[in-house]
Amino acid sequence: MDPIRRRARTRRKFLKMLFASPLITGSSMLAGPLAELLRAEAPKEEHFLGWLGNLQQQSDSVISSPDQALDVMDFEPAAQKAIPPAHWGYLATGVDDDATVRANRDGYSHIQIRSRRLVDVTNIDMSRTIFGVKWDSPIVLSPVSAQKAFHPDGELGVARAAKTKGHLMMLSTVATASIEDAIAARGGLVWQQLYPTNVWEVTRAIIKRAEAAGSPAIVLTVDLEDGSNRETLFRSQRVDKRQCATCHSGGYSPFAQGKPGTSPLKGGFAGYVARKPMFDGLDVSQVTQMFPRAADWELVKRLRDTVTVKFLIKGIVTREDAQLAVEHGVDGLIVSNHGGRTEDTLRPTIESLPEVVEAVAGKAPVIVDGGVRRGTDIFKALALGATAVGFGRPHSWGLGAFGQAGVEAVLEIYRRELRAIMRQAGTTSLDKITRDSVIPRPS
Q1: Residue 246 falls within a domain, yes or no?
Q2: CA 255 to each of CA 264, 371, 399, 400: distance values in angstroms, whole numbers, following the listed order
Q3: Are 131 and 217 in contact (CB under 8 A)?
Q4: Alpha-carbon torsion, ordered 256, 261, 265, 267, to 10 deg
Q5: What angle do CA 398, 391, 364 make, to 5 degrees?
Q6: What's the rounded mean pLDDT across residues 335-353?
């Protein structure tokens, strides 16, 4: 083989080795340029060296304080730098090759905003009323589990940031903080997300505890599928040299769930949930699933008869299911595919939103999450009928990088960007953002 071809083959092998690294696959910022190089027949040496130089420059430019961030994406590499590899993989992962995670984000790029001119935009009103409560903005903190895995502040840091900035927060069933502590840190309302488990007595106890604590809403999550192929997580685990048992001693580790060639740690799934505050004092010996595979609309009926506060379903993405939810007396819906973390449908939630809104026909508020990274994304979702817009990963990036201060900075950036696009579009309040405010991008 001639020297030129040998060098080209060596470079390509090295690129493939880099692309297999979880440090690359876990970051859309890095994986994209490398994928472009791999698609090339024979990448030129100067192109390759230039890419490595850009990679080094990106690494050197990671923000070191929240005030340096220009957008919420700036928090992603800062969080990745601060969070242990396996924990980062848990936050970043999608299913298979993360295509649905990317689709959620890309969906917003297919929508254009129509600007109106000569409108007095001196005063912008971003407030939104949901279930009789007026919020400063339509921006919602979606539930994310085990946030102490990202920063010692955990969910309480998120709650305090939500209080400072005036935002609605949802707390995961498997959070590392209780609903009572989250409400105290928030200084007010926190919605309780619900994984129903396969044991009704446990499910009912969680509901009643949240209601007693003052949570005004229970949010049943139906977009979770156990055993999904979370490749980014598994690749990240391979480079994490820590022993999981150090933190997960005596219990199941969510970071080992479904990992090829491994088994749950001693204690099993029941041991895992037993260490979560919302399961304190409950008999979880028979709990084997967060969301039972046998669940159907009879479960929704049973929950509707049990829940005395507002009852929402998170994970509805079709017209048919939205109609069934309304028929079963559900008070609100959240259009979500779990951030692309548990299914690989390749359908972005922003494209699911219109048919759900149409099916609900104004009978219940509709919130959407998944792929929201800009204030313009929030604007587009509102234009397509969303009552409010949520996100999970970005506020976890802020938390992982800088704790409560990082979450506050993320929220402030979203607010700033939403205010800016409302001015640019000539919409001085949320009710002025309508279907006429957006158009599909020509293909």
Answers
A1: yes
A2: 10, 22, 19, 17
A3: yes
A4: 110
A5: 150
A6: 94
The number of helices, as runs of H, and strands, as runs of E, in the chain is 19, 12
Say how far apart CA 252 and CA 250 lie, in whole Å.
7
Give whole-number Cα distances, 46 to 35, 38, 41, 197, 223, in Å.
17, 15, 15, 55, 45
Phi, psi of 391, deg, nearest 5? -155, 155
Tell me the two tokens of residue 243: 């022993």
In a domain, 92, yes or no: no
The answer to whether residue 83 sits within a structural domain is no
Residues 414 and 433: their CA atoms lie apart, in Å, by 17
Rg (CA), the chain: 22
| Res 45 pLDDT > 80 | no
pLDDT of residue 227: 73
| CB 232 within 8 Å of CB 239 | no
Co-location of 178 and 57 in the same domain: no
**Mean pLDDT across 226-248:** 76
Tell me phi and psi for residue 265, to 5 degrees. Answer: -70, 170
30 shares its domain with 175: no
Angle at 416 between CA 415 and CA 420, to 5 degrees: 115
Distance between CA atoms of 37 and 418, rounded to whole angstroms? 35
Q: Note down the domain range covering 37.
A: 1-61
What positions carry a catalytic annotation? 338
Amino acid present at 86: A
Averaged pLDDT, 122-150: 97
Q: Which two tokens stand for residue 82?
A: 């601060």
Which 3 state secondary structure label does DSSP give 344? Answer: coil
pLDDT digits (tens, 9 = 90+) for 213-230: 999 999 999 998 777 888
Element (H, E) at 246: helix 245-248
Phi, psi of 289 (to 5 degrees): -140, 140
CATH of the domain at 241: 3.20.20.70
Cβ neighbours, 10 Å, residue 338: 23
**In the numeric block, which tokens belong to residue 403?**
């704790």
pTM over 0.90: no
pLDDT value at 61 more than 90:
no
